[in-house]
Amino acid sequence: MAPRKNARVAVYARVSTTGQDVGMQLRELREYAHQRGLEVVDELVDTESGSKDRRPQLDRLWALVRSRKVDTVLVYRFDRFARSTKQLVDALEEFNHLGVDFISLHEQIDTSSPMGKAMFTIISAMAEFEREIIRERVRSGLAKAKAEGKKLGRPRVPDKTVSKIRALRREKEMSLGAIAKQLNVPRATVQKYA
């Protein structure tokens, strides 16, 4: 099974610096789309480090995907699209949920094919395994700290401070921000106890 003929494709490419040329990526992606009979409806190019959480053209790509204006997302390589395995797996899961195919040209992953679906399942399983290992390490670390008598969590707000917060709010009708500033405590603390 291959991507639907005449499927609407969004091509996404990325380079890390303005001195790099994205032309090679776009040329190969356009050629692949043409050979497969896919209609390229948008080309999105970011010139950003892959480690950045926000990339303008990636955000635009997500808007196209979520509004169902594309059937397939085509990228040059995983590392041009996602900054981590977790981000890649989360994206693949959302694409799957929305019925959007994902093709990574150089890793030869195509989620519309049986092999691509199998690879997605393997990647998802490995990511879940990694998350479970991290959870177990956190649990072990917390248990160790507790056994050593370490206090966990945020420090308790003294009763005296809680009384002052309530008095300032009730008697002087001060704003939450003004109380926080006067008592030198976070606004969220004031909001919780006011």
Structure description:
By secondary structure, this protein is of the alpha/beta class. It has two domains: 8-125, Rossmann fold (3-Layer(aba) Sandwich); 159-193. It has eight helices and five strands. Helix 6 crosses helix 7 and helix 7 (176-183) packs across helix 8 (187-193). It starts with 7 loop residues before the first strand and ends with a helix. The mean pLDDT is 85.
CATH architectural category of the largest domain = 3-Layer(aba) Sandwich
Largest sheet, strands/sense/barrel: 5 strands, mixed
Q: Give the CATH class of the largest domain.
A: Alpha Beta
Count of the separate structural domains: 2
| Series of secondary-structure elements, N-terminal to C-terminal | EHEHEHHEEHHHH
User: Which overall shape is indicated by the principal axes computed on the Cα atoms?
Assistant: elongated
Question: How many helical stretches?
Answer: 8
Write the CATH homologous superfamily of the largest domain.
Resolvase, N-terminal catalytic domain
Class derived from helix and strand content: alpha/beta
pLDDT below 50 for ≥5 consecutive residues: which ranges?
none
Please give the alpha-carbon distance between the first and last residues. 61 Å
Helix content: 40-55%
**Strand residue percentage:** 5-15%
Q: Trace the largest sheet across and list its strands.
A: 2-1-3-4-5
| CATH-assigned fold name of the largest domain | Rossmann fold
Rg, alpha carbons? 25 Å
Mean pLDDT, nearest integer? 85
DSSP E strands, number: 5
